[in-house]
Amino acid sequence: MVEFPERAKKWGIGADLPELLDYLPRKRRLFYPIANAFIEGLYWRDATSFGSGTAQIVRVLLKRKDSEIANRLMEVLLGIAARREHPWNGAWLWSRLASMEMPHRDLMWSEFIRCSEESSNVSRLLAWAERPAASKADAAVLSNQLKLLALMTTTTERLVRDRATRAMVLLSESQPRALFELAIQSLEFNDPYVSERVLAAAYGVALRNWGLVRRSPDFDSSLKVLARELLTSVLEVGAPHSTWHTLTRSYAEGIVQVLGMLNSRLVHPKDLASLTRAPGADESPFRPIAMIADAEVVDGESTIHMDFGNYTMGRLVDERGNYDMDNLEYVGVRRQIADRIGRLGYREADFQHIDQIIARYSESRRDGNRSDRYGKKYAWIAYFEMYGLRSRSGRLKEFPRHEPRSADADIDPSFPVEPPDWRPPLPDVFASSPVDRVQWLSAGQTPNYASVISLGRVDGHSGGWVLLDAVFHEGADDGRETQAWVTTAFVPKRSIGSLRAEFATPAPEHRDLPEPGNDFYTFLGEVPWSERFGSDIRRADGKPLVLNERILDHYADGKWREGYPAESTSRIWAWEGHHSPLNDLGNVYFPSPSFADFHSLRGVSGSADLIDRNGRVASIFRRHPGPGFGSAYFYVRKDLIESYLDSRLLTLVTMIRGERTLHYDSFERPIPDEIQSIYQSRINDFAMILGLE
Questions:
Q1: Spans of all domains in the chain
Q2: pLDDT (tens digit, 9 = 90+) per residue, 548-599?
Q3: Are strands 517-519 and 570-573 parallel, antiparallel or unpaired?
Q4: How far apart are CA 649 and CA 475, in angstroms?
C-alpha cells in the first residue's frame, strides 16, 4: 500500500497515480486489512504519491459509519496536514472539511477532536503552538497551522476550543497578517463556531497590539484590510455574511473600533453607523412564529434542557419570572430558537446516542473541564443569534449600560497575563508583637501601611508611584494575621475643610470612601478605551462621568443628609473565570475611566498594567500570596495623578482600614469569651485617613 503508488509512478502505469486496491481482485478486497494497511501507510508515503485514487479511498473510508476507522484516519490526516509543503496540508484539509454539511462534519471531525487523547496529533499541535518559539516560525508555516487550529474550534470540548483560540492569538501576535486573512476566509465556513473563534482570535491580537509603540510592521495595514472586509461582508446592511450572533458581531465591531483608534480617518461616519445600527426586518435568521409548525421544533426542543431553557434563554425576555414557561413572549422566542436549531441541521436521531455519552461522561469528569452536547452547540448558536437581535433591537433593558455583553461570553480573547508576584517593603509586625493571641489582638503592633502609600520605585519601575487601592492580608505561622484595605477617592478641593471636620469626629459606619465599580463582561484588552469599561458610569455619548459619586451621605436625626461629591480612583476588572480555565485571572484593578481617558492610557499584550501614549508604564497591579486570597497592590504614576488633580481642582484622599486578627483555624470552639470581647470592642481595629491636611 505504501510502495505501490511510488513504484507505479516510476513504471509509468496509468495517467493518474494508481492504488494497489485498483489491481486487487474484488474477492481479495477485504475491508479491514486493506483499511488498516492504507491508513498506517499514509504517514510513510512520499508526498508525490498522493493522487485522486488516494482521495477516493479516503472518501470511501469516511462514508462508512465506523467511528474507529474515521478517528484513526483523521488522526493521520491531521498529522499530514501539519506538513506545510505536503499537497494534503492545512489548506487541503480545510477545503475538504468546509465542503461538508455541519452535522456530517460534527459527527466525524468534531467527534475525532473530542475523543482525541493526550498523545494525539491534536494535543501535539496545541502543545507546539503554545510554545513561545512557535510564533517565530516562517509565515507560511504559521498560516498552515492557523488553519488547523481554526478547524479544531468546531469541537464541543471546551478546553480544546479555548486552547486553539488562544494558540491562534499567541502565534499571530507578532505576525498578524495570516490570521487576519484567515478571519476573512472563515466567513465562508458553514459552522458559526469557526468564524466566531477566528474573529475572536483576530480581535484578541488587535487588542494586544494596537497600543504598542513598536508593533508588527504589517499590523496596521493588515488590520485595515480586515476591518474594511468585515464592514462590507458582515456589518453593513445587506452584507453577504451578515450575522447578529452577539459574539461574532461584537468581535467584528471591535476590530473596526481598534482601527479607528489607530487612525480615525480610516473609519467613516457611515462605518460607525454600521457598528451601532439595529437589525433590519429582513436580517433575522429566525422565521416568524406563525410559520413554524409543531413538527419543526421537535428536534430543537430535544436539546433544550431545564437549566438552559429557564435560566439562559429566560434572560432573553424582560419581565419574565423564573420558571415561567407560559410567558407568551418567552414561548415565542423559545419556539423560534428550537426551529433555528433544527434548520442548522441538528437531528435528534443522528446525535442522541453521542449526546447521551457526552452527558454521562461530563457528569463523571474530575478534571474540571466540560464537553457540551452537540445539541447544546446548536442551541448556543441560536441563542447568541437571538441575543444579538433582541439586545440591538432594544428588547433587553439591561443592554448596553449594565450588561454591555452577554453574560454567557465564554472567553476573553485578549487572554490576560497573570500579574507578577511582588510585595512592597513592609516591616514585619509579627516579629515585634506578642505571640499570645489575646495580647496580639489587644496590644500588637499596628502595621505602618502608610509607609508604602508613596514609593519611588515599584517592582523595578522608577519615577514615583502612589498606592490607590490595596488589600493587605499577611500572617505568621502561628495563626496571627493582619488584614487591611486601602481605598482612595478624588474630591473637590473646596470640600476639604468640611471633610476634615467630618472625619475629625469618631467615625461611624457610613464614613467610608466609595468602593470601585466592577466590570464583569468587559475584555481586559478593552480596558480602558472601550465604552464597555465602566459602562454604568458614562454619559449617553460614552464619555466617562466625573465626580459621579458621593461620600458621607447618611440618614440621621430623622432626615437624609447629603454628603460631598467624589470620584473613585479605581475600577475593578472582574471577569468571571468560571467560563474558561484560560481566563481565570481573578480581580484586577485599573485607573477609573475618567482618569484613564484624561491621560489616553492603553493596555497591551494582555498585561494588567497600562501604559501612556509614549509607551511608559502608567499603572501597576501586583499580587502576593498569603493567607486567604493573599494581597494585591495597585499603584499609579505620581506625575499622572498630580496633573489630573491640578487640571480638575481635586484632592486625593486615602483611607486605610484594617484589623489584627487570627486565622480561622486558630480559634478554639467555642471561641473564648476574652477573644470575643476584643472583637466586639474593636480595639484590634485600626484606621487612618490621609489627604485632608
A1: 65-218, 289-392, 466-690
A2: 999 888 777 788 888 899 999 999 999 988 889 999 899 999 999 999 999 9
A3: parallel
A4: 40
Per-residue pLDDT tens for 401-459?
Answer: 777 889 999 999 999 999 999 999 998 999 999 999 999 999 999 999 999 999 999 99
Q: How far is residue 609's CA from residue 618's CA, in Å, rounded to a whole number?
A: 7
Q: What is the 3-state secondary structure (H, E, C) of 45-101?
A: CCHHHCCHHHHHHHHHHHHCCCHHHHHHHHHHHHHHHCCCCCCCCHHHHHHHHHCCC
Q: Rounded to the nearest 5°, which phi and psi values hold at 534?
A: 65, 40
> What is the rounded CA–CA span in Å between residue 231 and residue 82?
32
Find, among 489, 498, 447, the residue nearest to 657 by Cα: 447
CB of 187 closer than 8 Å to CB of 234: yes
In whole angstroms, what is the distance from residue 294 CA to residue 301 CA? 10
What mean pLDDT do residues 387-405 have?
Answer: 86
The proportion of the chain whose per-residue pLDDT surpasses 90, expressed as a percent, equals 78
> Does the CA dihedral 529-532-536-541 come out positive or negative?
positive
The pLDDT of residue 9 is: 53
Tell which wins on pLDDT, 29 or 585. Answer: 585
Residues 6+ apart with CB under 8 A from 655: 486, 487, 488, 512, 513, 687, 688, 689, 690
- Residue 323: closest CA among 334, 313, 310, 333: 310
Q: What is the dihedral of CA 40, 41, 45, 51, to 10 degrees?
A: -100
Q: What is the pLDDT of residue 553?
A: 83
Alpha helices in 313-436 (DSSP H): 328-343, 348-364, 374-392
Taking the model in full, what pTM does it have? 0.93
CA distance 156 to 358: 10
Task: Give the pLDDT confidence of 519-537 residue by residue, as tens digits.
Answer: 999 999 999 999 999 999 9
Q: Write down the residue that cell numbers 502612589 correspond to.
A: 466
Strands, DSSP E only, in 120-172?
A: none
The CA distance from 468 to 489, in Å, is: 8
Q: Considering Cα of 224, then 241, then 303, then 396, what sign does the dihedral take?
A: positive
Q: Does the pLDDT value for residue 10 go beyond 70?
A: no
φ, ψ for residue 314 (rounded to 5)?
Answer: -60, -25
Residues 6+ apart with CB under 8 A from 48: 6, 9
Q: Burial code of 530-569, b = ≥16 C-beta within 10 A, e = fewer?
A: bbbbbbebbeeeeebebbbbebbeeeeeeeeeebbbbbbb
